Amino acid sequence: xxxxxxxxxxxxxxxxxxxxxxxxxxxxxxxxxxxxxxxxxxxxxxxxxxxxxxxxxxxxxxxxxxxxxxxxxxxxxxxxxxxxxxxxxxxxxxxxxxxxxxxxxxxxxxxxxxxxxxxxxxxxxxxxxxxxxxxxxxxxxxxxxxxxxxxxxxxxxxxxxxxxxxxxxxxxxxxxxxxxxxxxxxxxxx
Length: 190
Ligand code: GRF
Prior knowledge:
CATH superfamily of the domain at 4-109 and 139-151 and 179-189: Formyl transferase, N-terminal domain
Structural class: alpha/beta
Strand order of the largest sheet: 3-2-1-4-5-6-7
Radius of gyration: 16 Å
CATH topology of the domain at 4-109 and 139-151 and 179-189: Rossmann fold
Bound molecules: 5-O-phosphono-beta-D-ribofuranosylamine
Helix content: 25-40%
């Protein structure tokens, strides 16, 4: 089976990266990770790329005069891979319009809330403070607005009595690991 080339962008731990690596090892999975990029040279997730023999590179944003120059270098580096999808997995930098327009309908993101609720940071804390009964996660296409764009998949997670930010984050993360590989499959097969 010919698999579609995927790039994964991370900034930290990389547990979602790992879930995609695992899924892509199935011979019937339609995608394969061709490269991992991190804007953080110390991202733990880079170890996962290394251990799984996936090409990776990092660029330190602090060495660039502005975001356009930084992103143009990323675009040049990833171009030869002819990526069918770029999956943001805990990538903590907002992409410019120029970058997004370079990969139209080919950039996905995972967000730890049931969008459109709780865009941005501290999603679990805000959901608990607002006494929500249900939290969850969302995989969506990336557009120019933060945590916006067409939704591909969502998964609900129940908020239990006495739930803390940490316990909820753990439960939602588990759901993230389920839906991200699935959403990628949907996006690749459409
Ligand atoms: C996840 O909760 C993801 O939804 C958010 O950032 C976190 C990344 O975690 N965008 P990891 O690096 O994949 O473990």
